[in-house]
Amino acid sequence: MRNLFTLIILLTSWVIATASPKYEMRAVWLTTNWGLDWPSAPASNSHEIAQQQKEMRAILDEVAALGFNTIFFQARTRGEVFYNSAIEPWSHIVSGKPGNSPGYDPLAFVIDECHSRGMECHAWLISIPAGSVRQSQRHGNNATSARHPEMCVKLKNEWYLDPGNPQTATYLASIAKEIATNYDIDGIHLDYIRYPGEHGRFPDDKSYATYGQGVPLKEWRMNNITHIVHTVSNTVKAIDNSIMVSTAPLGRYEIIDGLPSSDWVCTGSACQDPISWLNNGYNDFIVPMMYYSQHNYFPYLADWVDRVGNNGYMVAGLGAYRMDKREGNWSLDELKEQITATRQHGTAGQAYFRMQHLRQFPDLAHLLACNYYQYPALIPPMRHCNTSTIPPTHSIEVSRCHTGDTIRWEAVEDAIRYAVYASATDSIDTSDSSQLIHTWVTDTTVIVPASQYRSFAITAIDRYRRESLPQYHFSTQQVNHF
After folding, report:
1. Is 367 in the same domain as 438?
2. 74 with 192: CB under 8 angstroms?
3. Could you tell me if residue 10 is inside a domain?
4. Are residues 240 and 289 in the same domain?
5. Is 120 exposed, middle or buried (0-12, 13-18, 19+ CB in 10 A)?
6. How confident is the model over 337-371, as pLDDT tens digits?
7. For residues 190 and 229, is the Cβ–Cβ distance under 8 A?
8. Contact 390, 461 (CB under 8 A)
9. Do residues 21 and 377 make contact, with C-beta atoms less than 8 angstroms apart?
10. Which residues pair with 455 in a beta bridge?
11. Shared-domain flag, residues 333 and 440
12. What Rg, from alpha-carbon coordinates, does the chain have?
Protein backbone atom coordinates (compact mmCIF):
# COMPACT_ATOMS: atom_id res chain seq x y z
CA MET A 1 0.00 0.00 0.00
CA ARG A 2 1.08 3.54 -0.68
CA ASN A 3 1.78 6.09 2.03
CA LEU A 4 -1.34 8.26 2.15
CA PHE A 5 0.46 11.34 3.48
CA THR A 6 2.95 11.25 0.59
CA LEU A 7 0.11 11.07 -1.90
CA ILE A 8 -2.18 13.64 -0.31
CA ILE A 9 0.44 16.40 -0.15
CA LEU A 10 0.49 16.31 -3.94
CA LEU A 11 -3.01 17.77 -3.95
CA THR A 12 -1.66 21.25 -3.39
CA SER A 13 0.56 21.36 -6.46
CA TRP A 14 -1.75 20.97 -9.43
CA VAL A 15 -2.41 24.59 -10.33
CA ILE A 16 0.45 25.49 -12.67
CA ALA A 17 0.49 23.94 -16.13
CA THR A 18 3.73 22.31 -17.18
CA ALA A 19 5.42 22.86 -20.51
CA SER A 20 3.87 21.09 -23.49
CA PRO A 21 5.72 17.77 -23.92
CA LYS A 22 7.00 16.75 -27.33
CA TYR A 23 5.78 13.15 -26.88
CA GLU A 24 2.22 12.84 -25.63
CA MET A 25 -0.81 10.80 -26.57
CA ARG A 26 -3.85 13.06 -26.82
CA ALA A 27 -6.82 10.80 -27.34
CA VAL A 28 -10.59 10.90 -27.32
CA TRP A 29 -13.13 8.09 -27.20
CA LEU A 30 -15.53 8.42 -30.15
CA THR A 31 -18.65 6.52 -29.12
CA THR A 32 -20.89 4.83 -31.68
CA ASN A 33 -23.03 2.86 -29.21
CA TRP A 34 -26.55 4.31 -29.40
CA GLY A 35 -25.07 6.90 -31.80
CA LEU A 36 -23.92 8.96 -28.81
CA ASP A 37 -21.11 10.72 -30.69
CA TRP A 38 -21.78 9.43 -34.21
CA PRO A 39 -23.78 8.85 -36.35
CA SER A 40 -26.77 11.10 -35.74
CA ALA A 41 -28.88 9.01 -38.15
CA PRO A 42 -28.54 5.67 -39.96
CA ALA A 43 -27.58 5.38 -43.63
CA SER A 44 -29.42 3.33 -46.22
CA ASN A 45 -28.76 5.31 -49.43
CA SER A 46 -26.06 7.45 -51.02
CA HIS A 47 -27.42 10.71 -49.61
CA GLU A 48 -27.46 9.36 -46.05
CA ILE A 49 -23.99 7.86 -46.50
CA ALA A 50 -22.69 11.25 -47.58
CA GLN A 51 -24.33 12.85 -44.55
CA GLN A 52 -22.74 10.35 -42.14
CA GLN A 53 -19.34 10.90 -43.70
CA LYS A 54 -19.78 14.67 -43.62
CA GLU A 55 -20.55 14.47 -39.89
CA MET A 56 -17.48 12.35 -39.25
CA ARG A 57 -15.22 14.70 -41.20
CA ALA A 58 -16.53 17.63 -39.15
CA ILE A 59 -15.82 15.76 -35.90
CA LEU A 60 -12.29 14.85 -36.96
CA ASP A 61 -11.64 18.39 -38.20
CA GLU A 62 -12.57 19.69 -34.75
CA VAL A 63 -10.42 17.30 -32.73
CA ALA A 64 -7.45 17.79 -35.07
CA ALA A 65 -7.81 21.56 -34.63
CA LEU A 66 -7.79 21.07 -30.85
CA GLY A 67 -4.41 19.34 -31.06
CA PHE A 68 -5.42 15.70 -30.64
CA ASN A 69 -3.38 12.94 -32.25
CA THR A 70 -5.34 9.76 -31.42
CA ILE A 71 -8.92 8.58 -31.93
CA PHE A 72 -10.39 5.56 -30.15
CA PHE A 73 -13.14 4.70 -32.64
CA GLN A 74 -15.77 2.35 -31.23
CA ALA A 75 -15.69 -0.34 -33.90
CA ARG A 76 -17.43 -3.02 -31.81
CA THR A 77 -20.18 -2.24 -29.36
CA ARG A 78 -22.00 -5.17 -27.71
CA GLY A 79 -21.96 -7.99 -30.22
CA GLU A 80 -22.36 -5.56 -33.15
CA VAL A 81 -19.74 -3.97 -35.38
CA PHE A 82 -19.15 -0.90 -37.55
CA TYR A 83 -17.07 -2.59 -40.24
CA ASN A 84 -17.39 -5.40 -42.76
CA SER A 85 -17.09 -8.54 -40.63
CA ALA A 86 -17.48 -12.24 -41.25
CA ILE A 87 -17.75 -12.80 -37.49
CA GLU A 88 -20.35 -10.40 -36.09
CA PRO A 89 -23.32 -8.52 -37.58
CA TRP A 90 -23.56 -4.88 -38.59
CA SER A 91 -25.00 -2.53 -35.99
CA HIS A 92 -28.43 -1.11 -36.69
CA ILE A 93 -27.09 2.23 -35.42
CA VAL A 94 -25.11 2.75 -38.61
CA SER A 95 -27.46 1.15 -41.14
CA GLY A 96 -30.93 1.42 -39.64
CA LYS A 97 -31.50 -2.34 -39.70
CA PRO A 98 -29.71 -5.00 -37.64
CA GLY A 99 -27.24 -6.94 -39.74
CA ASN A 100 -27.46 -4.63 -42.76
CA SER A 101 -24.46 -2.85 -44.27
CA PRO A 102 -24.76 0.93 -44.54
CA GLY A 103 -23.29 0.72 -48.05
CA TYR A 104 -19.74 1.62 -47.08
CA ASP A 105 -17.18 0.62 -44.44
CA PRO A 106 -17.14 3.17 -41.56
CA LEU A 107 -13.97 1.78 -39.97
CA ALA A 108 -11.98 2.01 -43.21
CA PHE A 109 -13.39 5.49 -43.79
CA VAL A 110 -12.49 6.73 -40.31
CA ILE A 111 -8.96 5.30 -40.51
CA ASP A 112 -8.30 7.11 -43.79
CA GLU A 113 -9.79 10.35 -42.50
CA CYS A 114 -7.75 10.19 -39.29
CA HIS A 115 -4.51 9.54 -41.14
CA SER A 116 -5.16 12.39 -43.58
CA ARG A 117 -5.33 14.71 -40.56
CA GLY A 118 -2.18 13.35 -38.90
CA MET A 119 -4.01 11.32 -36.23
CA GLU A 120 -3.81 7.65 -35.29
CA CYS A 121 -6.97 5.53 -35.26
CA HIS A 122 -7.32 2.73 -32.71
CA ALA A 123 -10.21 0.25 -32.97
CA TRP A 124 -12.08 0.45 -29.67
CA LEU A 125 -13.70 -2.91 -28.89
CA ILE A 126 -16.26 -3.56 -26.16
CA SER A 127 -15.03 -6.99 -25.11
CA ILE A 128 -17.12 -9.10 -22.71
CA PRO A 129 -20.71 -7.78 -23.24
CA ALA A 130 -22.52 -9.55 -26.08
CA GLY A 131 -25.71 -7.49 -26.24
CA SER A 132 -29.01 -7.17 -24.44
CA VAL A 133 -31.72 -9.82 -24.81
CA ARG A 134 -33.74 -7.39 -26.91
CA GLN A 135 -30.79 -6.57 -29.15
CA SER A 136 -30.03 -10.25 -29.62
CA GLN A 137 -33.64 -10.91 -30.59
CA ARG A 138 -33.35 -8.25 -33.30
CA HIS A 139 -30.38 -10.11 -34.80
CA GLY A 140 -32.05 -13.49 -34.51
CA ASN A 141 -29.79 -16.37 -35.51
CA ASN A 142 -26.93 -13.94 -36.24
CA ALA A 143 -26.72 -12.75 -32.63
CA THR A 144 -23.57 -13.76 -30.78
CA SER A 145 -25.67 -15.48 -28.10
CA ALA A 146 -27.43 -17.52 -30.79
CA ARG A 147 -24.33 -18.42 -32.80
CA HIS A 148 -22.23 -19.23 -29.73
CA PRO A 149 -24.56 -20.22 -26.88
CA GLU A 150 -21.82 -22.40 -25.38
CA MET A 151 -19.73 -19.38 -24.38
CA CYS A 152 -22.48 -16.88 -23.50
CA VAL A 153 -24.23 -16.39 -20.17
CA LYS A 154 -27.16 -14.15 -19.28
CA LEU A 155 -27.27 -11.72 -16.37
CA LYS A 156 -30.17 -9.31 -15.81
CA ASN A 157 -31.35 -9.28 -19.43
CA GLU A 158 -27.83 -8.87 -20.76
CA TRP A 159 -25.71 -11.44 -22.56
CA TYR A 160 -22.01 -11.73 -21.79
CA LEU A 161 -19.17 -13.80 -23.12
CA ASP A 162 -17.99 -16.06 -20.33
CA PRO A 163 -14.30 -15.29 -19.63
CA GLY A 164 -13.98 -18.72 -18.00
CA ASN A 165 -14.76 -20.52 -21.24
CA PRO A 166 -11.49 -20.96 -23.20
CA GLN A 167 -13.35 -20.29 -26.44
CA THR A 168 -13.96 -16.68 -25.38
CA ALA A 169 -10.28 -15.74 -25.67
CA THR A 170 -10.09 -17.37 -29.10
CA TYR A 171 -13.28 -15.64 -30.20
CA LEU A 172 -12.19 -12.14 -29.16
CA ALA A 173 -8.76 -12.76 -30.68
CA SER A 174 -10.46 -13.66 -33.98
CA ILE A 175 -12.26 -10.32 -33.96
CA ALA A 176 -8.99 -8.46 -33.35
CA LYS A 177 -7.29 -10.57 -36.03
CA GLU A 178 -9.96 -9.68 -38.58
CA ILE A 179 -9.41 -5.97 -37.97
CA ALA A 180 -5.61 -6.17 -37.85
CA THR A 181 -5.54 -8.18 -41.08
CA ASN A 182 -8.01 -6.16 -43.12
CA TYR A 183 -7.47 -2.58 -41.95
CA ASP A 184 -4.58 -0.12 -41.68
CA ILE A 185 -5.30 0.23 -37.99
CA ASP A 186 -2.85 1.78 -35.51
CA GLY A 187 -4.13 0.08 -32.39
CA ILE A 188 -6.56 -2.39 -30.81
CA HIS A 189 -8.14 -0.89 -27.68
CA LEU A 190 -9.98 -3.31 -25.36
CA ASP A 191 -12.72 -1.87 -23.18
CA TYR A 192 -14.98 -3.71 -20.71
CA ILE A 193 -12.31 -6.39 -20.47
CA ARG A 194 -13.53 -7.43 -17.03
CA TYR A 195 -16.24 -9.16 -15.07
CA PRO A 196 -19.46 -7.12 -14.68
CA GLY A 197 -19.17 -7.05 -10.92
CA GLU A 198 -21.42 -4.05 -10.46
CA HIS A 199 -24.41 -6.16 -11.60
CA GLY A 200 -24.01 -8.83 -8.94
CA ARG A 201 -22.66 -12.35 -8.97
CA PHE A 202 -21.54 -13.50 -12.41
CA PRO A 203 -23.21 -16.80 -13.46
CA ASP A 204 -20.09 -18.82 -14.23
CA ASP A 205 -20.65 -21.81 -11.91
CA LYS A 206 -20.59 -24.30 -14.78
CA SER A 207 -17.39 -23.02 -16.35
CA TYR A 208 -15.71 -22.79 -12.95
CA ALA A 209 -16.66 -26.38 -12.19
CA THR A 210 -15.32 -27.44 -15.59
CA TYR A 211 -12.16 -25.35 -15.84
CA GLY A 212 -11.42 -24.06 -12.32
CA GLN A 213 -9.12 -26.98 -11.39
CA GLY A 214 -9.22 -26.05 -7.71
CA VAL A 215 -7.91 -22.51 -8.19
CA PRO A 216 -9.71 -19.99 -5.90
CA LEU A 217 -12.58 -18.35 -7.77
CA LYS A 218 -11.25 -14.80 -7.77
CA GLU A 219 -7.76 -15.86 -8.81
CA TRP A 220 -9.25 -18.03 -11.55
CA ARG A 221 -11.30 -15.12 -12.84
CA MET A 222 -8.28 -12.81 -12.90
CA ASN A 223 -6.35 -15.47 -14.78
CA ASN A 224 -9.19 -15.70 -17.30
CA ILE A 225 -9.15 -11.99 -18.09
CA THR A 226 -5.35 -11.96 -18.34
CA HIS A 227 -5.51 -14.98 -20.67
CA ILE A 228 -7.89 -13.10 -22.97
CA VAL A 229 -5.66 -10.03 -23.06
CA HIS A 230 -2.61 -12.22 -23.69
CA THR A 231 -4.34 -14.15 -26.50
CA VAL A 232 -5.57 -11.01 -28.23
CA SER A 233 -2.15 -9.39 -27.95
CA ASN A 234 -0.28 -12.43 -29.31
CA THR A 235 -2.71 -12.68 -32.20
CA VAL A 236 -2.38 -9.01 -33.16
CA LYS A 237 1.39 -8.88 -32.74
CA ALA A 238 1.80 -11.97 -34.96
CA ILE A 239 0.13 -10.00 -37.74
CA ASP A 240 1.88 -6.67 -37.15
CA ASN A 241 3.80 -5.98 -33.96
CA SER A 242 3.66 -2.24 -34.59
CA ILE A 243 -0.09 -2.26 -33.87
CA MET A 244 -0.50 -1.00 -30.33
CA VAL A 245 -2.61 -3.12 -27.98
CA SER A 246 -4.15 -1.27 -25.06
CA THR A 247 -6.87 -1.65 -22.46
CA ALA A 248 -9.14 0.66 -20.49
CA PRO A 249 -9.17 -0.75 -16.93
CA LEU A 250 -11.06 0.72 -14.01
CA GLY A 251 -9.63 3.97 -12.65
CA ARG A 252 -8.26 2.52 -9.42
CA TYR A 253 -5.94 -0.47 -9.26
CA GLU A 254 -6.63 -1.20 -5.60
CA ILE A 255 -7.77 0.85 -2.64
CA ILE A 256 -5.12 3.02 -0.99
CA ASP A 257 -4.92 2.89 2.80
CA GLY A 258 -6.84 5.72 4.39
CA LEU A 259 -9.16 6.33 1.42
CA PRO A 260 -12.78 5.12 1.15
CA SER A 261 -12.93 1.38 0.53
CA SER A 262 -14.69 -0.19 -2.43
CA ASP A 263 -14.70 -3.53 -4.20
CA TRP A 264 -15.08 -1.74 -7.54
CA VAL A 265 -11.37 -1.57 -8.29
CA CYS A 266 -9.27 -3.49 -10.81
CA THR A 267 -8.18 -6.16 -8.37
CA GLY A 268 -11.66 -6.37 -6.82
CA SER A 269 -14.74 -7.82 -8.50
CA ALA A 270 -13.63 -6.59 -11.94
CA CYS A 271 -10.76 -9.13 -11.78
CA GLN A 272 -8.31 -7.04 -13.85
CA ASP A 273 -4.54 -6.97 -13.48
CA PRO A 274 -3.40 -4.30 -15.94
CA ILE A 275 -0.01 -3.95 -14.25
CA SER A 276 0.79 -7.57 -15.13
CA TRP A 277 -0.43 -6.91 -18.67
CA LEU A 278 2.16 -4.17 -18.99
CA ASN A 279 4.88 -6.10 -17.18
CA ASN A 280 4.45 -9.07 -19.51
CA GLY A 281 4.22 -6.99 -22.68
CA TYR A 282 0.57 -7.84 -23.37
CA ASN A 283 -0.28 -4.13 -23.44
CA ASP A 284 1.67 -1.26 -24.97
CA PHE A 285 -0.27 1.18 -22.80
CA ILE A 286 -3.22 1.29 -20.46
CA VAL A 287 -5.88 3.99 -20.08
CA PRO A 288 -7.38 3.77 -16.57
CA MET A 289 -10.82 5.36 -16.56
CA MET A 290 -10.12 7.92 -13.83
CA TYR A 291 -13.45 9.69 -13.82
CA TYR A 292 -13.07 10.83 -10.22
CA SER A 293 -12.28 14.10 -8.50
CA GLN A 294 -9.84 15.31 -5.86
CA HIS A 295 -8.83 12.63 -3.31
CA ASN A 296 -10.27 9.94 -5.57
CA TYR A 297 -8.14 11.16 -8.48
CA PHE A 298 -4.77 12.59 -7.47
CA PRO A 299 -3.59 9.83 -5.10
CA TYR A 300 -4.64 7.17 -7.61
CA LEU A 301 -2.89 8.95 -10.45
CA ALA A 302 0.35 8.86 -8.44
CA ASP A 303 -0.31 5.22 -7.58
CA TRP A 304 -0.72 4.25 -11.26
CA VAL A 305 2.45 6.05 -12.30
CA ASP A 306 4.38 4.41 -9.50
CA ARG A 307 3.14 0.93 -10.39
CA VAL A 308 3.61 1.26 -14.16
CA GLY A 309 7.21 2.43 -13.94
CA ASN A 310 9.11 1.76 -17.17
CA ASN A 311 7.16 -1.32 -18.25
CA GLY A 312 4.83 0.54 -20.61
CA TYR A 313 2.74 3.66 -20.79
CA MET A 314 -0.08 4.97 -18.67
CA VAL A 315 -2.49 7.40 -20.35
CA ALA A 316 -4.95 8.99 -17.92
CA GLY A 317 -8.59 8.57 -18.86
CA LEU A 318 -10.33 11.84 -17.97
CA GLY A 319 -14.08 12.31 -17.51
CA ALA A 320 -14.94 15.28 -19.70
CA TYR A 321 -18.58 14.15 -19.44
CA ARG A 322 -18.46 15.00 -15.73
CA MET A 323 -18.73 18.69 -16.63
CA ASP A 324 -22.35 17.97 -17.54
CA LYS A 325 -24.73 19.06 -14.78
CA ARG A 326 -26.33 15.62 -14.78
CA GLU A 327 -22.99 13.81 -14.47
CA GLY A 328 -21.20 15.73 -11.72
CA ASN A 329 -21.28 19.41 -12.73
CA TRP A 330 -17.50 19.67 -12.59
CA SER A 331 -15.89 23.05 -13.06
CA LEU A 332 -13.30 23.59 -15.77
CA ASP A 333 -10.69 23.99 -13.03
CA GLU A 334 -11.19 20.36 -12.01
CA LEU A 335 -10.10 19.06 -15.42
CA LYS A 336 -7.40 21.69 -15.68
CA GLU A 337 -5.83 20.48 -12.46
CA GLN A 338 -6.12 16.86 -13.58
CA ILE A 339 -4.41 17.49 -16.92
CA THR A 340 -1.65 19.43 -15.20
CA ALA A 341 -1.17 16.55 -12.77
CA THR A 342 -0.73 14.02 -15.59
CA ARG A 343 2.18 16.07 -16.93
CA GLN A 344 3.74 16.64 -13.55
CA HIS A 345 3.73 12.90 -12.98
CA GLY A 346 5.14 12.18 -16.43
CA THR A 347 2.27 10.10 -17.81
CA ALA A 348 2.18 9.33 -21.53
CA GLY A 349 -0.85 11.55 -22.11
CA GLN A 350 -4.58 11.98 -21.67
CA ALA A 351 -7.74 10.44 -23.13
CA TYR A 352 -11.15 12.10 -22.81
CA PHE A 353 -14.53 10.48 -22.47
CA ARG A 354 -16.09 11.43 -24.70
CA MET A 355 -16.16 13.30 -28.02
CA GLN A 356 -19.53 15.01 -27.53
CA HIS A 357 -18.33 16.74 -24.38
CA LEU A 358 -15.36 18.32 -26.09
CA ARG A 359 -17.94 19.90 -28.40
CA GLN A 360 -20.47 20.58 -25.63
CA PHE A 361 -18.10 22.66 -23.50
CA PRO A 362 -16.32 25.37 -25.52
CA ASP A 363 -14.30 26.47 -22.50
CA LEU A 364 -12.71 23.03 -22.31
CA ALA A 365 -11.99 23.03 -26.05
CA HIS A 366 -10.44 26.49 -25.78
CA LEU A 367 -8.32 25.43 -22.81
CA LEU A 368 -6.91 22.51 -24.80
CA ALA A 369 -6.37 24.31 -28.10
CA CYS A 370 -4.87 27.48 -26.63
CA ASN A 371 -3.02 26.11 -23.62
CA TYR A 372 -2.30 22.42 -23.13
CA TYR A 373 -2.37 21.45 -26.81
CA GLN A 374 -1.17 24.74 -28.27
CA TYR A 375 1.79 22.91 -29.82
CA PRO A 376 1.61 19.53 -31.54
CA ALA A 377 2.92 16.31 -30.02
CA LEU A 378 4.25 13.02 -31.35
CA ILE A 379 2.86 9.67 -30.23
CA PRO A 380 5.32 8.19 -27.68
CA PRO A 381 7.51 5.48 -29.25
CA MET A 382 6.62 1.88 -28.45
CA ARG A 383 8.67 0.21 -25.75
CA HIS A 384 7.92 -3.43 -26.58
CA CYS A 385 9.68 -3.56 -29.96
CA ASN A 386 13.13 -4.29 -31.35
CA THR A 387 15.95 -1.98 -30.31
CA SER A 388 17.35 -1.08 -33.70
CA THR A 389 17.49 2.62 -34.54
CA ILE A 390 16.02 4.35 -37.55
CA PRO A 391 18.57 6.22 -39.69
CA PRO A 392 18.14 9.97 -40.18
CA THR A 393 17.16 11.55 -43.47
CA HIS A 394 19.68 13.62 -45.40
CA SER A 395 20.15 16.01 -48.32
CA ILE A 396 17.66 18.62 -47.18
CA GLU A 397 17.05 21.38 -49.70
CA VAL A 398 15.00 24.53 -49.20
CA SER A 399 13.60 26.49 -52.13
CA ARG A 400 12.10 29.87 -51.41
CA CYS A 401 9.61 32.06 -53.21
CA HIS A 402 6.89 34.48 -52.25
CA THR A 403 4.23 31.72 -51.97
CA GLY A 404 6.15 29.60 -49.48
CA ASP A 405 9.30 27.69 -48.65
CA THR A 406 9.45 24.22 -50.16
CA ILE A 407 11.50 21.72 -48.15
CA ARG A 408 12.69 18.51 -49.81
CA TRP A 409 14.71 15.60 -48.46
CA GLU A 410 15.65 12.05 -49.37
CA ALA A 411 13.47 9.20 -48.19
CA VAL A 412 14.52 6.87 -45.38
CA GLU A 413 13.87 3.18 -46.02
CA ASP A 414 12.22 2.38 -42.67
CA ALA A 415 10.28 5.62 -42.33
CA ILE A 416 6.50 5.71 -42.64
CA ARG A 417 6.34 9.46 -42.07
CA TYR A 418 8.45 12.47 -41.11
CA ALA A 419 8.36 15.28 -38.56
CA VAL A 420 9.31 18.82 -39.49
CA TYR A 421 10.80 21.40 -37.12
CA ALA A 422 11.31 25.08 -37.87
CA SER A 423 12.75 28.13 -36.15
CA ALA A 424 12.72 31.84 -36.92
CA THR A 425 16.32 32.10 -35.69
CA ASP A 426 19.64 30.64 -36.80
CA SER A 427 19.35 27.83 -34.25
CA ILE A 428 16.80 25.07 -33.74
CA ASP A 429 15.96 22.77 -30.84
CA THR A 430 14.11 19.58 -31.76
CA SER A 431 13.31 18.90 -28.10
CA ASP A 432 11.16 22.05 -28.05
CA SER A 433 7.56 21.23 -29.01
CA SER A 434 6.97 24.85 -30.04
CA GLN A 435 9.35 24.27 -32.97
CA LEU A 436 7.52 21.13 -34.14
CA ILE A 437 5.37 22.31 -37.04
CA HIS A 438 4.43 19.02 -38.77
CA THR A 439 4.08 15.64 -37.08
CA TRP A 440 2.75 13.52 -39.95
CA VAL A 441 4.31 14.11 -43.38
CA THR A 442 4.14 11.00 -45.54
CA ASP A 443 5.85 12.54 -48.56
CA THR A 444 9.41 13.90 -48.75
CA THR A 445 8.29 17.43 -49.59
CA VAL A 446 6.47 20.00 -47.52
CA ILE A 447 5.63 23.69 -48.01
CA VAL A 448 5.77 26.14 -45.11
CA PRO A 449 4.83 29.86 -44.97
CA ALA A 450 7.21 32.09 -46.92
CA SER A 451 10.04 33.78 -44.98
CA GLN A 452 8.53 32.81 -41.62
CA TYR A 453 11.41 30.50 -40.70
CA ARG A 454 15.19 30.57 -41.05
CA SER A 455 16.17 27.10 -39.81
CA PHE A 456 14.68 23.66 -40.38
CA ALA A 457 15.12 20.10 -39.17
CA ILE A 458 13.64 16.83 -40.43
CA THR A 459 13.32 13.55 -38.52
CA ALA A 460 12.16 10.17 -39.80
CA ILE A 461 9.57 8.16 -37.86
CA ASP A 462 9.15 4.39 -38.22
CA ARG A 463 6.11 2.19 -37.62
CA TYR A 464 7.03 1.80 -33.95
CA ARG A 465 6.73 5.62 -33.57
CA ARG A 466 10.50 5.88 -33.04
CA GLU A 467 12.10 9.10 -34.22
CA SER A 468 15.50 9.36 -35.90
CA LEU A 469 18.17 11.88 -35.11
CA PRO A 470 17.45 15.21 -36.85
CA GLN A 471 18.96 16.45 -40.07
CA TYR A 472 19.33 20.24 -40.09
CA HIS A 473 19.19 23.03 -42.63
CA PHE A 474 20.30 26.46 -41.37
CA SER A 475 19.81 29.87 -42.93
CA THR A 476 23.57 30.20 -43.44
CA GLN A 477 23.51 27.31 -45.93
CA GLN A 478 22.86 27.66 -49.64
CA VAL A 479 19.24 28.47 -50.39
CA ASN A 480 17.71 28.04 -53.85
CA HIS A 481 15.46 30.78 -55.23
CA PHE A 482 12.86 30.52 -57.97
Report:
1. no
2. no
3. no
4. yes
5. buried
6. 999 999 999 999 999 999 999 999 999 999 999 99
7. yes
8. yes
9. yes
10. 423
11. no
12. 23
